[in-house]
Amino acid sequence: MPTPIPLRPTPRPVPTPTAGKIAVRPGDTLSKIASRELGDAGRWREIYDANRGVIGNDPAKLKAGQKLTIPGKGRATPAPAPVAPKPKPIQPRPPVTPTPVPPRPQPTNGSGDRDGDGVADRYDRSPDDARDKRWSQTATDEFTAFVKDHTLKLSFMGVEIDCADLAIKLLGDFCKKVGLPNPMGAAADKFQVYEPGRTGGLPNVEGPNYFLPGFGADQLAKSYTKNVNDADGNGVRGWDRKTGQVDAADLRPGDILFYDWEQDGKVNHTVNVLEVHPDGSILLGWGTYDNLAQDGNVKWKNLDLSPIQGVLITPGTEEYEKWMGAGNNLWGVRRYDWTADKEASPSIAYKPYVKPSEETPPSPPTPASVPAPPAAVDAAVQGTVDATQPPAAVQVQGTVDVVQPAPAQVQGTVDAVQPAPAQVQGTVDAVQPVPAPRSQVQGFVDPVERNP
User: Fold this and answer.
1) Are 330 and 257 in contact (CB under 8 A)?
2) What is the mean pLDDT of residues 188-216?
3) What is the tens place of the pLDDT at every residue in 359-399?
4) The domain 15-76 is classified under which CATH number: 3.10.350.10, 3.90.180.10, 3.10.20.310, 1.10.3720.10?
5) Nearest-angstrom CA–CA distance, 273 and 342
6) Which is nearest to 118 in space by CA: 186, 176, 185, 180?
7) How distant, in Å, are the alpha carbons of 223, 364, 429, 435 from that of 432?
8) Is residue 48 a contact partner of residue 55, using CB atoms and an 8 Å limit?
């Protein structure tokens, strides 16, 4: 006789969380709200997906006072009690004959990792030479397409990070995505992450703070990068050391501008090239920090990491000249050692910035004198008056009031006469459109202007 299956104890109902609502505070971002309400800044996407109709297409544009639904927050409602299944008799199972597993096929010459260096053949410059760690053109192209979108993603998350650490994180995150070993080694992936409520002693932690020990801008520039190649064939590799001008035609996304602010031969700032346009306009992005110490010494408790910043610079503008023109304190225009050179590209003419001349504004014009009118007393008009061709025979005597002329005595039909344009004394300023702030770049959260 079959043995009935014993019933399991009926589980107690588990409260099911429902969604709650909060009001957006001034200065809030989705990352801040996620950290405050859900305990994890990285869950900002859940809040955005639940409130896309309120926020709109740009998750960075929050307005104070908006009511947002927070998934998983609210008063708990009890879940319905489960219904106990009816016992079923156990039926004997027929014997199972194990099926032999065929061996896994080995990679052929067209795929896999033939030289066993951890780099897939499609990403390997020399797939038969394990000593050659350089990337293929395919890997390089995928990296250049990755850096802009990933930088914007980190910005949306509210990430706060230093300049060199951002460049290294872009490389490491790309390698993780496509399954490549990090050419900088395992130490380049060991970021320390701090968040509100778990700051590690860092000041002003408002979003995820990423810090990588043991690496700096000078080491990154001199140990892991090379000069860019002369893609347009004009004899300049990235920048002209004599003039300091950058050759935009040699740049591509993923390249790095290294600056030496102190002019002591030591690199102390890095800027990532995120996009290059045919007209020479370039989208730049970087991380940075503020030193809160009064004595100028950088200590852990005074290291205030800042959100990712960005700017779109256009040739011929003052902003472009600061970053790319003469006297910009550049140390080098470089890219990672293992990436392929940029393919040939047409030259982009350098457009120098012309500083507007400081001219003295013109003085207001002197009002034109009114000549003495000819003698005539009365303006008696008979017949029809053509407004477009006023009669020339009107005779006037006495003083003419230019501002308020006396009405003429008219007999007959008079066509409407359009008033003459008003006479204006002084200078009339033409309406000038107000330019948008230079550092407001679409996609970046809370951009901050930087004067290099």
Assistant:
1) yes
2) 95
3) 555 555 555 544 555 444 443 334 444 434 444 443 444 44
4) 3.10.350.10
5) 14
6) 180
7) 49, 19, 8, 9
8) yes
